[in-house]
C-alpha cells in the first residue's frame, strides 16, 4: 500500500514555500495551501504571526506546529479523499494525490476514473480502486498524465493569466511518470 509520508514530501517539493503572486487566483499560498480557498485553516494564524519576525518567510520552515498543520490538512483533505492508503502502487498514489492537491480531489478522481475506464463520478470507491490497483501501471500513468495536461490547456484557454504556470504544471506532471 502507498505511504502518505513519502507522497507528501514529493508534493511539498513541487508546491514550494510561501508565495503571494497577484496573478494566482488562490492569492497568498503556503506550500500550496491557498488562503482564498482555505481561509479558516489554522496555519494562517502561525504565518501571520511569523510575518513580523526576522527571516520571513524562511522562518516558517522552523515552526513545527505549522508544519504539522500542513501535513494534517493534506492528509485529511486530499490523501484520505483519494483513498491513498488503499492504492497499492506508490507512484500511482503519488500522481493521483499530487494532482488532487493541484486541482482538487474530485477532479483528480474523475481523471483517474477516466484513465481506468471507471465511471467518472469524482469519488474513488471500491470499483475505481480495483481498477487502479489492477491496471497496467505505465498505461495508467501515461493516460493520467495526458488527461492532466489536457486540463491545464483548458485552464489556460479560459484564463490567460494562468499561461505563465503551464510549463511548470507540465513539468510537474511529467516528473510523476
Would you identify the CATH architecture?
A: Up-down Bundle
CATH fold call? Chitosanase, subunit A, domain 1
Query: How is the quaternary structure best described?
Result: single chain
Sheet with the most strands: spatial strand order: 1-2-3
Overall outline: globular
| Number of β-strand runs | 3
Mean pLDDT: 94
Query: What is the radius of gyration?
Result: 17 Å
Q: Summarize the main sheet.
A: 3 strands, antiparallel
Give the CATH H-level superfamily.
Chitosanase, subunit A, domain 1
Low-confidence stretches: none
Give the DSSP E fraction (strand runs of 2 or more residues).
under 5%
Terminal-residue CA separation? 18 Å
Helix-strand category: mainly alpha
Could you state the order of secondary-structure elements as H and E? HEEEHHHHHHH
CATH class: Mainly Alpha
How many domains? 1
